[in-house]
Amino acid sequence: MKRRIVLIVLAVCLAAGGALYWATRAEPRYEKYSTTFFSFDTVISIIGYAPDLNTFENVTKKAEERFMELHCLYDKYNAYEGVVNLYTVNTMAASRPVKVPDDLYDLIKYSHDMVPVTKDTVNIALGPVLLLWHDAREAAIANPAAAYLPGIQELQAADQHTDLGKLVLNDAQKTVFFEDPAMQLDVGAVAKGYAAEVVAQEMLKGPMPSFIINAGGNVRTGHPPRDGRPNWGVAVQDPDGYVSGDGVSDVLDILFLHDTSVVTSGDYQRYFEYQGKRYHHIISPVTLMPTDFFRSVSIVTESSAYADLLSTCLFLMPYEEGRVFVESLEGVEALWILNDRSIRMTDGLKDKASSQGASNPNPNQ
C-alpha cells in the first residue's frame, strides 16, 4: 500500500514537473533590447522583446538592411551603382519606359492610386515645385544670410509639369514613363512610412513580433510589449520642446497603442527662415507655398504608409475641413497641435491618450 502511494505521488510530481517544463518551453522569458541606425536621412530606432540577444540582433540587422535597400531605391537625389532607383527614373523615364524593381514600382503605384483618397493634396508628380523649395532650403541652411524664396512665377512655371495624368505606369512590365519631359517624381510624402510598413510586416512574420520602430517621427508598433503592458507608449512631440531638451517638456501627450502606426507632419521638422518667418517643407499643390494652419498633425492608423500620406494631406487642410475629412475615413484617428499649442483630437483617440486619462498599467510590477 505504501509503495502504491509512493508511486502515485512520484507520478504526480513527474507530471507536474513535465507540465512546468513544457510551459517553460512554450513561454520563454523575453528581454527588452534596443538599437539605432541611420537611414532615410534620419535616426531610426527599434525596441523589441526577444527571447535572447542573438534573436534581436538577427531581426534588427535584417530590418536595417531592408531600410537601407529601400532608401537607395526611393532616393531621388543620388545614383547607386547597379541600382535602378527614383533618380534613374527621373533621369531616364522621359526618353523611354524604365523597368524598375518591384519595391520601387509598388511605392509609385501606391502613391499614384492614393491621390483621389487624399483629395489631390499629395501628388508625387509635384517634384519640379518641391525641387525649387528644396534648393532654397539647402541654400538657407548653408548660409542663412543668403536665404531666399522661390519666385511665384518660377513656381507656377514648374507647376505646369506636375500633371500626374502624364505618368504612364505599366503593371505587367513594371515600367515607368513620363509623357512630359520635365516631369519629376518626389515620394517624400510617403516613402519613409511606406518603408516602415514594409519592414514592420516582415518583422511581424519573424521571431520578434513585439517591437516598436521609430523612423524619425514615423512610428510603427508591433504586438504589445512582452513585459505585461497592454500597449506601447508613443509620445506626441511638442513643436517647441526641442529648445529645452530636458526630455519632459518635449512631450505634449502620450498615446497608448499596439499593432498600429503614428505618423506626424509638422512645421518644425524641415524648414528654413527668411525675414523672420519660418518656411517648412510641406508645400500646398494649390498655393505652391507652405501652409500655416497649425503646428503639427499626427495620424493614427494601422498602415504606416497610409498614415504618412494622410499626415501630409491633413497638414495641408484647415482644421475644420481636415476634421470632417478624417472622420469620414474608417480606422483613422488624428491629433492636431494648433498654432496656440492647444490640442484637438478625434473622439476615437481619446481613450488612448494620456491627457484624457488613459494609462498603460504593467501588472508584473
Topology of this structure?
Elements: H1 2-26, E1 31-39, E2 42-50, H2 53-74, H3 86-92, E3 98-99, H4 102-113, H5 127-142, H6 152-159, E4 167-170, E5 175-178, H7 191-204, E6 211-215, E7 218-221, E8 232-237, E9 251-257, E10 261-266, E11 271-274, E12 277-280, E13 296-301, H8 304-315, H9 319-327, E14 333-337, E15 343-345
| N- to C-terminal distance | 47 Å
What kind of assembly state do the chains in view correspond to? Answer: single chain
Major sheet details? 8 strands, antiparallel
Q: Briefly note the structural class of the backbone.
A: alpha+beta
Number of separate strands:
15
Write down the overall mean pLDDT: 90
CATH hierarchy: architecture of the domain at 228-356:
Roll
Name the helix and strand elements from N-terminus to C-terminus, one letter apiece.
Answer: HEEHHEHHHEEHEEEEEEEEHHEE
Structure commentary:
With 365 residues, this protein is an alpha+beta fold. Among the domains are: 86-178, T-fold; 228-356, Roll (T-fold). It is built from nine helices and 15 strands. The strands form four sheets. An eight-stranded antiparallel β-sheet has the order 1-2-6-7-10-13-14-15. A hairpin with a 2-residue loop joins strand 11 (271-274) and strand 12. Helix 7 packs antiparallel against helix 8. The protein is globular, with a radius of gyration of 25 Å. The two termini are 47 Å apart.
